[in-house]
Amino acid sequence: MLLEFSVGNYLSFKTKTTLSLLATPIKEHLDTNIFSSNRYDLLKGAVIYGANASGKSNFIKAMSTMRRLVLQSFEQSSADELDVIPFLLNVETENTPSSFEAIFIIDNVRYRYGFEVDNRAVHAEWLFEAPKQAEKPLFIRENDGIEVMKGFPEGKDLEERTRDNALFLAVADQFNGKIAKKIMQWYNNFFTISGLSHEGYKGVTFGMLENKLTSSTLLNFYKKLDLGFDDISISKKPFDPKELPNDMPESLVKQLVTDLEGAFKIDIKTIHKKYNSKGKLVGNVEFDMRSQESSGTNKLFNISGPVFDVLNDGGVLVIDELDASLHPLLTLAVTKLFNSKEFNQNNAQLIFATHDTNLLYYGNYRRDQIYFVEKDSYGSSDMYSLVEYKEEGKTIRKDRSFEKDYIEGRYGAIPFIGNLSNVVTEWQEK
Q1: 391 φ, ψ to 5°?
Q2: For residue 303, how many C-alpha atoms fall within 13 Å in the half-sphere facing its CB?
Q3: Start and end of every ATPase AAA-type core domain (predicted)?
Q4: Rounded Cα distance, 287 and 284, in Å
Q5: CATH of the domain at 23
Q6: How many Å apart are CA 389 and CA 282, to the nearest integer?
Q7: How many whole angstroms separate alpha carbon 167 and alpha carbon 84?
Q8: H or E stretch including 114?
Q9: 350 occurs within a structural domain
Q10: Mean pLDDT along residues 346-355
Q11: What is the Rg, in whole angstroms, of the alpha carbon atoms belonging to the chain?
């Protein structure tokens, strides 16, 4: 369970910026949108709004980058770069490390883990735990060395085994450290996906549809959304090199044959009812999912696997551009799964970026779940929640029309378009 995520000096975020899933004392949607864990009341998610190029995707990319660095750190060589870009629009930050930190709960223990890195090395790293209220360090890493505390014996004698560009936590995990393995598993259940490039996630959906324990849940979800088909047919057969195009270069064919040896080709068909001229049902027709169904249906199918996988396991799912290609009601259906006691019994959390303002009205989000991102005149992104926003020194009331206010620019984080008629006139005069 995620409590907070913070990033600083990364892409468009110059200063430290935090998204918190700790519920504030406001009395909104208490039965659906929050859950209690140990001594904390936590939110089941957050929605992020902002103009194009405001930094929404950069914040989600920061989450993805931290996850990648944690899970892939040990696999890299000492010569590999870390692919981390700082805030480049200021001379004070362009050559300093980026910082990432997450606070989360595992087995009723709160952990705070973070690091500072540039493209070549880890400059700082820290891990704290709080079994109760007080927080104590497990290890602290600075440029001149790593200090391992008594509460982290699994890290002893691993200091010299840690490369400059590797995370100490990942090294401890490779040597079967008990705490390190728990944290690695937590990050393994911390998913970040793109709502624009979603083809790569359909494998998860295939796997869940092949599993009898999970297939019925997905199929029932599709039927409730009235996507136009009645069932799904999946065929799986071994990869056949004969199906490759005849004009493909021989060298590429050989490479693919080697890479895809033992792989399977999966075809998915949607089943539609067929009627005669009198409206009588006469049979079924199969449609190819990719070529004959809409882009929205394909997207919903592709991301439904990760969505229900996280719901089943109780992890964290982060989605950029969730609403792209989806009807507003489909976007609403996905988000409501996480506030459902029926589907979200393991307290999974959903964080997503969107332009769909309908959710500000129909989504039933609390003010502490709604975040806005905007850039200042120096190109630096800032993020704030609606519960933090002050208007004439007062907080925003819960009975306000959040959607209307946002479109009118009362909360910021929207594009400044100006007078469109002037833009058209100037263009016509050219």
Answers
A1: -125, 115
A2: 30
A3: 46-360
A4: 10
A5: 3.40.50
A6: 59
A7: 14
A8: strand 109-117
A9: yes
A10: 95
A11: 24
Angle value at C-alpha 247, between 246 and 253, nearest 5 degrees: 75
> Do you know the residue count of the chain?
430
Residue 58, in any domain of the structure: yes
Query: What average pLDDT does the segment 343-347 reach?
Result: 92
Query: What is the span of the domain harbouring residue 18?
Result: 1-197+309-417
Give percent of the chain with pLDDT exceeding 90: 60
pLDDT given at position 259: 65
- 198-245 pLDDT, tens digit per residue, is 877 888 888 888 888 888 889 889 888 888 888 888 887 776 777 667
> What whole-number distance in Å separates Cα of residue 399 and Cα of residue 397?
5
Minimal CA–CA distance to 269: which of 252, 249, 244, 291? 291
| Residue carrying structure tokens 């120096």 | 378
372 pLDDT above the threshold of 70: yes
User: Would you state the torsion angle of the CA atoms of residues 386, 389, 391, 393, taken in this order, to the nearest 10 degrees?
Assistant: 140
Task: From 354, 360, 352, 365, select the one nearest 410 (Cα to Cα).
Answer: 360
Rounded-to-integer distance, Cα 234 and Cα 225, Å: 20
What does the pLDDT read at residue 211? 86
User: Contact 302/326 with Cβ under 8 angstroms?
Assistant: no
